[in-house]
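Exercise: predict the fold of this chain.
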Amino acid sequence: MPEGPEIWRAADKISQAVAGEEIIDLYFAFDELKEFEETLKGRKITSVTPRGKAIITAFDNEFNLYSHNQLYGKWLISKTPNEPDTNRSLRAAIRTKKGSAFLYSASEIEMLVDREVEDHPYIKKLGPDVVHPDTTYEEVLDRYKGDTFKNRKLATLLLDQSFLSGVGNYLRSEIMFCAKVDPEFRPKDCTDEQIEALAKYSVELSRRSYKTGGLTTEPELVEALKREGSSRKQYRHYAYDRTGKPCYKCGKEIVEIKTGGRKIYYCENRQKEYH
């Protein structure tokens, strides 16, 4: 499932392709949205805004397209009206003279008027967005320090969008790795130093991933590994999907555990024996 950085990049691409341009053609696969094909034709998109792992595409007549990619959904962009070559199922298409945006395989698509956006069941429960430039370190730190979440295991808490929106499976492993936190810990088990590090890296790594197209490792390490001939997969993350590979900080093997059906990657030497 795409995480916050990927959703922000998708929103950027949609905006660049179709925002501010007159819509010349619109298509929706679901019957309940068919009426909007004509309603929105000739209108313009005023903004494309990430909301957690969803995107709100706002039109200039108070309508908003809510889309959530879930596991398989994906936006594809084209400079022409022609669909990209893909076997995915088309759910929505927005065409302008400048470019086109196509949504494939997503199951959650709704049309909302302006007043309904903030009350949407998914949106109204979202915590601070770690990628959003207005979200501060202090806001995120307050989430980790608050009584509401202190008794929940971090491995599951970090996937809860009501805690911090935008964090997903790869970011949680990377955040706990950089903060030197045991994946079995709850916020209440952490030292003040660890809590501050969790808040710091929740923001820092999410925004780094957004800006770099998916890298969570620091630029100096990336450049060093590139010089050694490492592939993007090898230098992209510190711990995520690196089972059995040497930790970039201490040289010990990265290990994995499974919780809630999903894998967490960590360094035992760095995270389990940290004091």
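Check your answer against the key: The radius of gyration is 20 Å.
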